[in-house]
Amino acid sequence: MIKFFGTDGIRGIFNKEPITEKFFKNISLSLVYLIKNKSLSPKIVIGYDTRSTSLVLKNAIIENFIQHGIDVKDYSYTTTSSIAFLSKDTNISFGIMITASHNDAEYNGIKIFNNQGFKISDILENEIEEVLYKIINNKFDEISIQSRYIGKYIINTLESYNQYLFNYFKNTIDYSNEIIIDLANGSACFVIEKIRKHFNLNLKYIHNNPNGININKECGVLSHNSLSQMIIKNNANFGIAFDGDADRILFIDNKGMPIDNDQILGLFVFELLQENKLQIGDTVIGTEVSSFGLEKYINILGLKFKRTKIGDKHVINEIINNPRSVGGEKSGHLIISHDYLTSDGIFTFLMILKLLTKYNNKSLREISDKFTVMPRIEYNISYENQVNLDDKSFIESVKKLKNDYNALIIIRKSGTENVIRIVIESKNNKINNIILKKLITAYNGLIAKQSANPYLLYQA
Questions:
Q1: What is the pTM of this model?
Q2: Catalytic residue IDs
Q3: Can you name the CATH fold of 160-255?
Q4: Does the pLDDT value for residue 456 go beyond 60?
Q5: Exposed/middle/buried for 113, CB within 10 Å: 0-12, 13-18, 19+?
Q6: Sequence-separated (6 or more) residues with CB below 8 Å from residue 151
Q7: What are the CA-CA distances from residue 132 to residues 28, 110, 332, 417 (Å)?
Q8: What is the CA radius of gyration of the chain?
């Protein structure tokens, strides 16, 4: 059976399988089946980012819901995190966000939440895929889910989400310095202004004119050059960048340099200890690509550090299983409150403003500089044909490099694109580059064994 779900929902290039109108209609059919088979509430919430294709896919997916008696609450252009928040309702069966997150406009996808506000489990993903398989192979009985009623289509606002943030940070933020914000021409463009007005913030926006095709284009968390330049030009205290659906965030200091999100997580952990919201012996959750420096710092604080698979849903699952824990990903997914178990770039931004209010004479760089981040390099290899990274001799080669150089080495398939992602971290970049060359040699050997296609061989 084909696996559609990756590390963060389903994603791909629009109008190429599976990101087609037909497939999205099939997804809604499979969800309708599960709603009725599991006796879930016949209501869903939906939102989408600013890609022109998001509206196309939204219209495709809601058609079957309404036709089969499922009410649809449409929150229009919004963030993934707001949909997670709005899904946390026993009167809701699923929350749906149409987005391809940090990817360019040619991509799109879907993220699905349960009525606890969490991304659906691997088990539920498998159930959806089983129904999809039947639909695609004409083995699905649609008569079994027919309804005598037509679902309602309701256009909603984000008032409850906004009010939650306003209440959570009531009387904790008083910050007047200028902040430059890169909105990535994405979802945050439709959310941030009410935040600015309520907290009386001095914000200057860039990349805040979405036109359907410019989301993440030379902007956002993966492209911060224009943000860095604007910070320096305006002598701003710091800046932030969101990704297309604003569940990730990147902080840039007053000199235009990125602040590692592992350092941001370390800062939050330190503060939570000071507030007795974490205690000695509690656990902090990272991922397999979290830095050695973060792990060492967490241990120095007297806390345990646990690594999980990449993907914020895996971090959240571990937090749920470890009471009084927090966690995050180096990519900018940070989950720092048990009261709000979702990765929300805007929530994280407000948490930083709360701390800057507390330390009113210090810069963000100063308060976040808790430990040294070891040098690392990241390298991507595109592929077309399937590559098996579980080869025994290849695994042994990687393990030997780790031991020989006392390095962090991650080589994995992306869950959202056809690329092999390589992460190497050691005490200096000279060693990192030596490891990369040796790793590429081992990878080429693997490809030569698995394929006769010479174009799949790479050089570092």
A1: 0.89
A2: 101
A3: Alpha-D-Glucose-1,6-Bisphosphate; Chain A, domain 3 (3.40.120)
A4: no
A5: buried
A6: 42, 65, 66, 67, 68, 69, 70, 71, 72
A7: 10, 15, 32, 21
A8: 23
